[in-house]
Amino acid sequence: MSTLDAPARARLPVSDGRRPATGDGRPRHRAAPARRSRGRAARGVITGIERFAVHDGPGLRTVVFFKGCPLRCVWCHSPETQAARPQVMLRAERCLGCGACLDACASGAASMRPAGGPAVDRARCTVCGRCADGCPTEARSVAGERVEAVALLARLERDAVFHGASGGGVTFSGGEPLRQPAFLAALLDGCRQRGLDTAVETSGYAPWAAVEVASRADLVLFDLKLHDDARHREHTGVSNRRVLANFRRLASIHPRVRVRLPFIPGITDAPANVAAIGREAKTAGVAGVDLLPYHAAGSAKYLRLGQPYALSHLKPPTPESLAEARRLLEAIGLDVSIGGGG
């Protein structure tokens, strides 16, 4: 999630001499012994990798965005991560009208709009990627890359020098990483073997066996959006009963779980909702909450996917509303950050 900037940590992590330390000086969580993952065989689908991120855990992070999510949050700023399979995205403003994409498309799904700009028949499109490869300006692109865990781990390891100096590491986000549990397990185990600090950001909407995979991470960033089940169904498409049950169970066995609350005006920002989530976190023994302010940076992606965006009218939350939410959560006894830098 993109949020407000937070300063990267400047100090080197301090170890207790027994095991690697995290950026805040505390010993790194050692998960229960995991089954040996077949890193070379494990494959998954991601939409991209963001380097030097400061919104997805402590320090400088390399963030891997998994493709596929069971929720349909109306405020989602990454709609390209929702569907499990790769998708064609269109950027009309980049189109030259050269027709190279039409020549490359074997299924006949690619076309041009009468007024100019690319079009696609998504029912016929096989997402082979040839139209994107043939486009000189990236007016057509494919959201979704199939990768092997071993190849991805090699890419992640290159950033280790930046992680260590800032107390950062690798964050697996999405979409929903728990939709690809075998792939996630191979990556978490591979990162541990390479000494890379890990975090998993999750909605918590998954079978417990998949949540257990997330427990292998050094830090779990757990989204709690709406405490009322009916409102959760209305705005995300699913019940929160499984989410809350998984949150409570995970918090009881993992020492580093942090709640993330997307702060969406008119939807999640009501004081009653903020307080209920704060009490949920406090009761579970979780120390902190990250308030993630709404932004409209992802709205253009809906157009590129040929989808409507329901919140085009919405403005970001005011500094006053964020400050009030922070005071409310701090009064419950929680550590609060705005922006998710941790």
Tell me about this structure.
The protein folds into two domains: 235 residues, TIM Barrel (Alpha-Beta Barrel); 56 residues, Alpha-Beta Plaits (2-Layer Sandwich), CATH 3.30.70. The chain contains eleven helices and 13 strands. A nine-stranded mixed sheet has the order 7-1-2-8-9-10-11-12-13. The protein has a two-stranded antiparallel sheet with strand order 3-6. The protein has a two-stranded antiparallel ribbon with strand order 4-5. Strand 1 and strand 2 form a beta hairpin. Helix 3 runs parallel beside helix 5. The longest helix is centred in the C-terminal third of the chain and has 14 residues. 45% of the residues are buried.
At a glance:
With 342 residues, this protein is of the alpha/beta class.
Structure characteristics:
alpha/beta, TIM Barrel, Alpha-Beta Plaits, 2 domains, 11 helices, 13 strands, 30% helix, globular
| Tally of structural domains | 2
Q: For the record, what CATH class of the largest domain applies?
A: Alpha Beta
Give the helix proportion (percent range).
25-40%
Query: Can you tell me the CATH topology of the largest domain?
Result: TIM Barrel
The total of helices stands at 11
Residues in β-strands, percent: 15-25%
Write the layout of secondary structure elements.
Blueprint: E1 43-53, E2 61-66, E3 87-90, H1 100-104, E4 110-112, E5 118-120, H2 130-134, E6 140-143, E7 145-148, H3 149-157, H4 160-166, E8 169-173, H5 181-193, E9 198-202, H6 208-214, E10 219-223, H7 229-236, H8 241-253, E11 257-263, H9 271-284, E12 288-293, H10 299-305, H11 319-332, E13 335-338
Parallel strand pairs: 2-8, 8-9, 9-10, 10-11, 11-12, 12-13
Antiparallel strand pairs: 1-2, 1-7, 3-6, 4-5
Helix pairs in contact: 3-5, 5-6, 9-11
